[in-house]
Design brief:
257 residues, Rossmann fold, seven-stranded mixed sheet, two-stranded antiparallel ribbon, 9 strands
């Protein structure tokens, strides 16, 4: 896929974490209702791991809420410094930190557990304690966190990242390979992908997407040797004007060597 001729794509130097949070996370939109439900379902039978990684996390911490019961430590990693700053601000409960309480409520509801005020406060508190590192990462690199992190995580999640860097599907496939390198043998990779999108919008700015379909996700995971692939597609028509009308979720297991 190539860039559409009538779209001027923005660079990530133009990225504004506050704008993104305001547009996509001021309330729980359809894509995130589906994402949090998929995470709850995908993690239901996962044993506790020492370390989990959410890579390409943007300025978001809510995808860590479902990880908290399953990981002793959680690392968040992203390319953009402003995104990492937003996460650190939330961990420290600093001024201007985004309010993720509604997402904690929804996570607990998806898990089928108490979603009262005390439980919500407890999940947020536990998540803040579990996030022990906020790291710089580049999923375009063969070792996104450096060679020392290769196969370093039994549980890796990545949402709206591998496809949202380039309009070229070959870049998506390379990014998936790089993400897979972080998963320990026998470990789990969970991804969320904008379905068949050429772009996604933040305000008036267009950022590139590589037009990935569910078949592309399945093919990539299969080629990388992953097994027990759970693939789900959910319609998100309310997001059509932002560039995508569906999301693709996948959970897969990396085989032992």
């Amino acid at each position: 896929m190539t860039a559409l001729p009538n779209i001027e794509y923005s660079k990530f130097e133009d990225w504004n974490a506050s704008d993104y949070l305001s547009e996509y996370y001021g309330e729980i939109l359809d894509d995130e209702r589906h994402a949090l439900q998929f995470l709850a379902d995908a993690l239901r039978d996962v044993a506790i791991v020492d370390r989990a990684l959410d890579i390409g996390c943007g300025p978001c911490v809510h995808h860590c809420f479902p990880l908290t019961p399953h990981a002793r430590e959680i690392h968040c990693a992203d390319f953009v410094a402003g995104n990492r700053d937003a996460i650190t601000r939330w961990i420290e409960d600093g001024n201007g930190a985004h309010d993720w309480r509604a997402f904690a409520v929804h996570t607990l509801a998806c898990e089928g557990v108490d979603a009262g005020a005390d439980a919500v406060a407890r999940r947020q508190h536990e998540t803040r304690k579990r996030i022990t590192a906020v790291l710089a990462a580049d999923v375009r690199a063969a070792d996104p966190l450096g060679a020392a992190a290769r196969e370093g995580y039994a549980l890796v999640t990545s949402h709206y990242c591998a496809e949202a860097i380039s309009t070229d599907k070959s870049v998506f496939r390379d990014n998936m390979k790089n993400l897979a390198s972080l998963v320990a043998p026998g470990g789990i990779l969970i991804t969320s992908t904008c379905g068949a999108a050429d772009f996604y919008k933040v305000g008036d700015r267009h950022f590139p997407c590589s037009g990935v379909t569910a078949q592309d996700v399945l093919s990539s995971l299969s080629t990388l040797g992953f097994r027990d692939i759970d693939l789900r597609i959910r319609s998100t028509p309310a997001h059509t004007s932002q560039g995508y009308a569906s999301v693709v979720f996948a959970r897969a297991t990396k085989p032992h060597a």
